[in-house]
UniProtKB/TrEMBL annotation:
One of its GO terms (molecular function) is monocarboxylic acid transmembrane transporter activity. Gene3D superfamilies: MFS general substrate transporter like domains. The chain crosses the membrane at residues 38-55, 129-151, 157-177. Keywords: Membrane, Transmembrane, Transmembrane helix. This is Uncharacterized protein. The keyword Membrane applies. It comes from Adineta steineri. InterPro entries: MFS_trans_sf (IPR036259), Proton-linked_MCT (IPR050327). The keyword Electron transport does not apply.
Length: 178
């Protein structure tokens, strides 16, 4: 008898708990922000950008391998992306009010990747170029969000953007595959 009472109590507590989590999530996600057309467009562009954002990081080594770059030099391709991303965080974020940076330039550099041959300098160059401009993409997301939704709704706006970026990142690289 006590076991049945315990199981029934446990079942009721879990049902209420699950329901309250869903209610809390819906209450915390301010979907009214998506009525702002500029914010919705920015969220969609972040989703689409995040679909392919990590692909170069995941496959730069494989591209260098396919181009017959010496094995001990392949690590420099990914290192070039990382180092230039760090540098660009400093430069682009500090000068974001002065210089208009366009993230689209970073994707176009990968058009020359197949023509880089086995020369490590070319591979590191295009990887660094990509890394430099992708650093601006990361750093300026919160600044643009403040411009679109205001400082008082920054946490809600970033929450929605990061939700869509997370979904896109989770499905992006596996969809591209190897």
């Amino acid at each position: 008898m006590d076991d049945e009472l315990y199981l029934e109590t446990y079942r009721n507590q879990n049902e209420n708990y699950d329901e309250s989590i869903i209610r809390q999530l819906l209450a915390q996600i301010n979907l009214k922000l998506l009525k702002n057309n500029a914010f919705t467009l920015f969220t969609v562009s972040n989703f689409l950008s995040s679909l392919g954002f990590f692909v170069p990081y995941n496959f730069a080594h494989d591209l260098a391998k396919d181009a017959d770059v010496i094995e001990s030099h392949r690590k420099f391709v990914l290192m070039g992306i990382g180092f230039s991303t760090c540098i660009s965080h400093i430069i682009i974020d500090e000068s974001s009010d002065i210089i208009q940076c366009n993230i689209n330039y970073s994707w176009h550099i990968y058009i020359v990747a197949p023509f880089s041959g086995s020369d490590i300098l070319y591979h590191v160059s295009y990887a660094s170029f990509f890394g430099f401009f992708s650093g601006g993409y990361i750093g300026l997301t919160s600044i643009i969000t403040v411009d679109l939704v205001g400082l008082n709704k920054l946490s809600n706006g970033m929450g929605i953007i990061l939700l869509f970026q997370g979904i896109a990142t989770a499905i992006g690289t596996p969809v591209v595959g190897k």
